[in-house]
């Protein structure tokens, strides 16, 4: 853990319900996501990430377009994907879209590249799932070349080669690029190989379980002769005035989302007991009062040695109004608490806090 801690938000643009229980259209959800990004900027948060999906229950299939709309209405917050499914996209087009976003936002664009935990984009864009790993490996290799912003000569087997070609628009500086991983040691080492920052998607269990992966990443960076890079945490959460209120409000939407996805993947139904365990000290759900959520974030940052924490604040059909309240509390109450406590820990033990 080095330098200032960043606190961000992530959303997948989950299709939500109105206060009267009616389901919103994709268009309404997209406009609400833009409003949520605007609020995140106003309350002083550092990052706003938008995920990419190609299914009925998530409204965002083109994150860069949504982020560009947010960029036009904000001033300082960094804007990025969470994640971009590089395996089923073209690296050149991804670079162009995010370099365009970077220009429009005056240098605030970021991209988080990943393989994605949903597979709908593969048949949609004509990719063979049997090549799931090979597609990501090859396309990440090309994207790393594009980041150098020099004429690219590159050869692959699944995408046409490039011979001394430049890609436009260029970025004024560097395009901040992260690799998002879900817990695979191979993915962690791959991020270190390319010298790219790491996002750990911790969506189940304690952050403590992921500390060995963070250590592996740092060791791999050293072995590749690469300077230390930031590590971020992505985890779900919800904030209300009290712990009891947060759990009661979140539970029906959390249950519905998990059971819907679980049926697709062969999981059993989730229970209230499992939900409350995940919301406890040893789980990956950061749900509760500002005090509870801040304490859990501080513990996770210390365990991982992270420099950023991104709260995935959307959860299934959870209404827009509840998400807005979470954003407000996260920016105005939780973030100051987290920074204050981390600063106190650093003052008490400056050697450990230096990483």
TrEMBL record:
GO terms for cellular component: cytosol. InterPro entries: Bact_Lucif_Oxidored, LLM_Atu2307-like, Luciferase-like_dom, Luciferase-like_sf. PANTHER family: BLR5498 PROTEIN, LUCIFERASE-LIKE MONOOXYGENASE. Keywords: Monooxygenase, Oxidoreductase. It comes from the Bacteria. GO terms for molecular function: monooxygenase activity; oxidoreductase activity, acting on paired donors, with incorporation or reduction of molecular oxygen. Residues 21-307 form the Luciferase-like domain. It comes from Agromyces atrinae. This is LLM class flavin-dependent oxidoreductase. Pfam families: Bac_luciferase.
């Amino acid at each position: 853990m080095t330098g200032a801690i960043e606190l961000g938000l992530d959303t997948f643009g989950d299709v939500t319900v109105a206060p009267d229980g009616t389901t919103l259209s994709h268009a309404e959800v997209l406009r609400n996501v833009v409003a949520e990004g605007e609020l995140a900027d106003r309350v002083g948060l550092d990052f706003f990430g938008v995920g990419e999906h190609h299914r009925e229950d998530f409204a965002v299939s083109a994150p860069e377009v949504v982020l560009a709309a947010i960029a036009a209405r904000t001033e300082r917050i960094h804007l990025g994907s969470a994640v971009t499914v590089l395996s089923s996209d073209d690296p050149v087009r991804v670079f162009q879209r995010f370099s365009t976003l970077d220009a429009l936002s005056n240098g605030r664009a970021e991209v988080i590249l990943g393989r994605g935990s949903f597979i709908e984009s593969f048949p949609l864009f004509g990719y063979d799932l049997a090549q799931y790993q090979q597609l990501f490996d090859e396309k990440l290799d090309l994207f790393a070349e594009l980041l150098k912003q020099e004429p690219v000569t590159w050869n692959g087997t699944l995408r046409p080669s490039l011979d001394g070609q430049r890609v436009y628009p260029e970025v004024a500086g560097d395009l901040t690029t992260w690799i998002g991983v879900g817990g695979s040691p191979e993915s962690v080492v791959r991020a270190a190989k390319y010298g790219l920052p790491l996002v750990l998607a911790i969506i189940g269990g304690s952050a403590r379980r992921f500390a060995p992966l963070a250590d592996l990443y740092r060791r791999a960076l050293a072995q590749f002769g690469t300077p230390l890079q930031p590590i971020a945490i992505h985890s779900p959460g919800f904030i209300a005035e009290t712990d009891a209120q947060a759990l009661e409000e979140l539970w029906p939407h959390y249950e519905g989302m998990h059971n819907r996805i679980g049926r697709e993947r062969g999981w059993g139904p989730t229970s209230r007991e499992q939900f409350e365990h995940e919301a406890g000290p040893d789980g990956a759900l950061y749900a509760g009062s500002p005090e509870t959520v801040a304490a859990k974030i501080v513990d996770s940052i210390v365990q991982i040695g992270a420099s950023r924490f991104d709260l995935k604040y959307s959860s299934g059909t959870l209404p827009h109004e509840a998400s807005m309240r979470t954003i407000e509390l996260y920016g105005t109450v939780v973030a100051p608490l987290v920074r204050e406590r981390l600063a106190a820990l650093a003052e008490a033990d400056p050697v450990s806090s230096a990483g």
